[in-house]
Amino acid sequence: MTDAAPHTPLPRPGLGADRARMDEILRVDHAGEYAAVLIYRAQKAVFEGRKARGDIVRDLGEMQDQEAVHLARFERLLNERRVRPTAMTPLWRIAASALGAGTALIGEKAAHACTEAVESVIEKHYADQIAEIGDRDPALAAELKQFRDEELAHHDHAVEHGSREAPAYRLLSGVIKAGCRAAIKISEKV
Question: Could you identify which of 30, 40, 86, 141 might form a hypothetical disulfide with 64, taking C-beta atoms 3.0 to 4.6 angstroms apart as the criterion?
Fold first, then answer.
């Protein structure tokens, strides 16, 4: 998917730095999976209201179910490791639902363009995390690899179903990617 090498941040200095970084990873991944569930749920709701949309409704439901498994895992990890979720959750709920409904209202190809854009950012994000924590937490890195593979499957499905034929594809994709990158940075810290 991406040719760039994973970006591995330099280790932080200081006592508790590794723990703080792991907290950030879990917090942001939980937020991302939460948003993914809401995006697919909103898209599915729009298409359920339209005639002859059975295939996309089924596909969106399957992807939403996979994201829900990821979300449940991160919820367990947050609880087990006593990590607080992002304080941005209420805003992400609104933003993700609006993004899902908005792209679905534009049409199927725009909904697929949303999936492609989100999953391309998430794939890179997970790849960076896998490279960063592989030695420190191999079990979590293995889970992230599995989740990354599933996100790539969603990305590829979107491309196969015409994501790049969406109206104003480049603009739509660019805005969604920028929003995802910003949400990642904010969710790590806030």
Answer: 40
